[in-house]
Amino acid sequence: MRTIDLSPLYRSFIGSDRLASLIDAANRTDNQSTYPPYNIELLADDQYRISMAVAGFGQDDITIEAQDNTLSIQGKKPESTEQEERKFLHKGISEKNFERKFQLGDHVKVMGANLADGLLHVDLERHIPEAKKPRRIEIGSRLIENKNDQ
């Protein structure tokens, strides 16, 4: 019997519980590069943090956009006007531009972002409206919609 590795499903989905969305994310994750590396942390029940290693990028080089349920993080280095030729003995720090997209679950909002020590931290929080939260129904109780109907 085959074991299915579901770890790609957890890479780019935050706060989503729908299986169909997870399968869709797995297809998109395979097409993305692995640069830049990132972590997704669960800080509390409804609080998350994405930490992305963006060494060499400054605050002005990074754009963060949230639209619908998609969080997009782009890094673009300005093109150098000087034709300075550098000679590397070893080059392990990438300077390439990147774009990383994350599918956010319903009601997940971006709370803020911070860039420090080469790490970009994006804080997320899930706010479930009261109407969507589960409610306990007592046995023997009856909900009356309109008292005029009696």
Automatic annotation (TrEMBL):
Record keywords, A-Z: Stress response
SUPFAM superfamilies, A to Z: HSP20-like chaperones
Residue intervals of the SHSP domain: 29-142
Descriptive protein name: Hsp20 family protein
InterPro entries on file: A-crystallin/Hsp20_dom (IPR002068), ACD_IbpA/B (IPR037913), HSP20-like_chaperone (IPR008978)
Gene3D superfamilies: 2.60.40.790
Family of the protein in this entry: Belongs to the small heat shock protein (HSP20) family.
Domain of life the protein comes from: Bacteria
PANTHER family: PTHR47062, SMALL HEAT SHOCK PROTEIN IBPA (PTHR47062:SF1)
Species of the source: Salinimonas marina
Lineage: Bacteria, Pseudomonadati, Pseudomonadota, Gammaproteobacteria, Alteromonadales
Keyword Lipoprotein in record: no
